[in-house]
Amino acid sequence: MPKxxxxxxxxxxxxxxxxxxxxxxxxxRASPSQPHCAICSAELNGISASGGKSRRSNSRLFGxxxxxxxxxxxxxxxxxxxxxxxxxNDIGMKQRRYVLQLVAx
Length: 105
Ligand SMILES: [Zn+2]
Hints:
Elements: E1 11-17, E2 23-29, H1 68-83, H2 93-104
Helix pairs in contact: 1-2
The structure holds zinc ion.
């Protein structure tokens, strides 16, 4: 059984053969995956998976969480709710969460 520190999914197993022809398993930390939109799960543009904090996010509203298309949709829905043209219950479950965040401000 591998050590608890090697049971994580963020650790990759690599099979190696030693000079004495023994099969051994080495462990390597997997590189971080590309961030995705929380609503449509598309890859986020302009964001790197690694690097400093400013490379992993952008300063836009919901930057690093939602893609540009979903953000504009949330802003539209938020203004409709604030104007009273639409009710919160008419909005889908995934989008409602972000509309509530937007309206609270
Ligand atoms: Zn999206």
